[in-house]
Amino acid sequence: MPDIGTLQVSLVSNRGQRPITDAAVEISSAGEPDKILEVLKTDLSGQTEVIELETPPLEYSMEPGLNQPYSEYNLKITAPGFEPVEIAGSQMLSGQLALQNLSLEPAITETASYEVLAIGPHTLYGDYPPKIAESEVKDIQATGEVVLSRVVIPEYVIVHDGAVSDNTAKNYYVLYKDYIKNVASCEIYSTWPKETLRANILAIMSFTLNRVYTEWYRSHCSFMVGKCGSAGIFFLLLFAF
Question: pLDDT tens, 22-69?
């Protein structure tokens, strides 16, 4: 028998972050995209009700194995005055509340097609190339590039959506706290014990703050923002693989 997880969708306009009311959210299984399971509406806060959906058994996510530990659902979102969006592969785990937050673009034409946002396999389940090897201890005195006098908590980070060598990939400004949450969602399962989650999130934060302090990607981000670590808002260029 399948387990159960829950899902809630929250929508805002990307112009002013205003909640989007009366939006329709069609939910289907990724395996049967033409079969609509639920149709939800957003309320005055831009949120749908919390609904239950089937997931694989909890034990699949507790230790590595061949069985996919999460279920995947497609969400088709339409709202009056906004561009329609389809999210393909939204992941749900047993006993967990999945929060799908999205900001929508105001509509330019009346006949816009769906923008498809595809979510790739989880890092722990998908087949990804290995991380680029690097030294555990950094020689921060070698180049003279380090300008920060202390470790700081950045407000934003800049995420390069591709490999280091890919100059065609886009760069995105992401709030630091949102970046940490997104990395954690990709690197660990929310079904794990609380102490395990805390340890992994602290490791993610430590790694990110090390990159800020050492200005590890300074040569890449200087051409974008003039100077990293300026005006009290510190920037960091991170790479998605």
Answer: 999 999 999 999 999 999 999 999 999 999 999 999 999 998 888 999
What pTM was computed for the model? 0.80
DSSP 19: B
The strand pair at 115-118 and 85-92 is best described as parallel
Question: Is 27 in contact with 40 (CB distance < 8 Å)?
Answer: yes
For the record, the structure tokens of 30 come out as 């990724």
Is 97 within 8 Å of 50 (Cβ atoms)?
A: yes
Q: Are 25 and 100 spatial neighbours (Cβ–Cβ below 8 Å)?
A: no
For the stretch 163-192, pLDDT in tens is 777 888 888 888 999 999 999 999 999 999
The set of residues, in sequence order, having a beta carbon less than 8 Å from that of 205 and lying 6+ positions away, is: 180
Torsions phi, psi for 26 (to 5 deg): -95, 130
